[in-house]
Amino acid sequence: MVLIERESLAIGASGRNGGFMSSSLVHGLGNGLSRFPDEMPLLEKLGFRNLDEIEKVIEAQAIDCDLRKPGVIEVAVTDAQMVELEEGVEEFARYGHEAVMLDAGQIRAEVNSPIYRGGMWQKSGEWTVDPVRLCDGLADYASRLGVRIYELTPMKGFEKSGAGVRVRTPTGSIQAARVLLATSAFKVPVGQIRRRVIPVYDYVLVTEPLTRSQWDSLGWRNYQGLSDSSNQFHYYRPIDGGPDAATDEKPGGRLLWGGYDAIYNYGGRVDEEAYQRDSSFAGLAQRFFTAFPQLEGVSFSHRWGGAIDTCSRFFAFYGTTMEGRVGWAVGHTGLGVGASRFSANLGLDLLEGIDNEVTRLEYTSSKPMPFPPEPVRWGVVQFTRNRLAAADRNDGRLGLWLRTLDRLGLGFDS
Questions:
Q1: pTM exceeding 0.70
Q2: Do 150 and 5 contact (CB within 8 A), yes or no?
Q3: How many other C-beta atoms lie within 10 A of the C-beta of residue 217?
Q4: End-to-end alpha-carbon separation of the chain, Å?
Q5: SS3 (DSSP) at 288
């Protein structure tokens, strides 16, 4: 088996993500229920099983990737968001999740912010991990299994060759019986993917190491990942040892803070220049200190951006082309850290023509609605972002445009 990588392993979404690993295969329970209600009991069970299998590999291969199981808290910063979260707790319980509501005092006892009204702590199916170390550990494991990995080897194209496929690279070609594409947000010579995936840029800040007193002002002893309930939302969590890394004598542990903007560039450009965006970083910093004014004066030691492979249903879709010789699993929309393992197995099953309970699902066979061509695509995305921001200013109430997209099963958020 051969794996080719256009740059270096973990240079893109595999390593630049926020380190949240979810059991959800459908970008959240509510999104899945709106699309495949009859299949959700099985999909939730498969999602939990997928995380268990990931953990087994991490433990068996002794991959040092700071795997933690603190759950995530979805934070309410308005009364309307609090009501919406309360309505979801019972639904989570019906599908095997442990979720509890926290009032303002309870959530501030977990993570102290003056803007919190409350939140829902989902304690099951939500883990955190150091994504670069996980990727490096999995690459080492794959190499020991005999997989040949070639970095700095972009795919230039492919065509039929005998009974298989010839994959072209800048320095040669690879003859394969089957090919599985995992191209994420990058362009690929498959029309079914190009019409359905757009690259949306996400940006992240990381603080300098925090002092013991700064950590004490925050709390965060349980290491949960957090996100807020707005349409344009942030995600954040402790990294590099978090509160336990700091002592009275030496700072330690950092906070990762990302999300909100979801920038789409005209024509779907994916290039290095877009990985840095000063206005996005400035906005992230401003909103960080609104959430945690007790950290005023803290500096940010790292910042980065990357492209997310967004599709209109928010989770991966699958297919084959070239008479079944080439398959794909793309469109994870920011939740690929855990789901990509499941997607890879499903993609390989489709290539092999395997018939089982998963390959027969509508989840597997259906495709997201394509995005319109440019320049309409750019205009629709920008207008939708504008309407999402307007909804957040209006206590989350959706206008006509967003309600129409929801009825059509379409969407776009941060």
A1: yes
A2: yes
A3: 15
A4: 36
A5: helix
Contact predicate 304/275, CB 8 Å: yes
- Smallest CA-to-CA distance from 278 within 247, 293, 300, 309 is with 300
- Ranking 8-17, 43-52, 403-412 by mean pLDDT, the lowest is 403-412
Report in angstroms the alpha-carbon separations of 7 from 11, 149, 169, 205. Answer: 7, 12, 12, 23
261 alpha-carbon distance from chain centroid: 14
Strand order in the sheet with 326-330: 179-181, 326-330, 317-321
Measured distance CA(234)–CA(326) in Å, rounded = 36
Pairing of strands 164-169, 172-176: antiparallel
Instruction: Assess contact for 55 and 337: CB atoms under 8 A.
Output: no
Distance CA(406)–CA(403), nearest Å, equals 5
Residues 319 and 292 sit within 8 Å (Cβ to Cβ): no
**In this predicted model, what pLDDT tens digit does every residue of 377-390 receive, in sequence order?**
999 888 888 888 88
Helices and strands in the chain: count of H runs, count of E runs: 13, 18
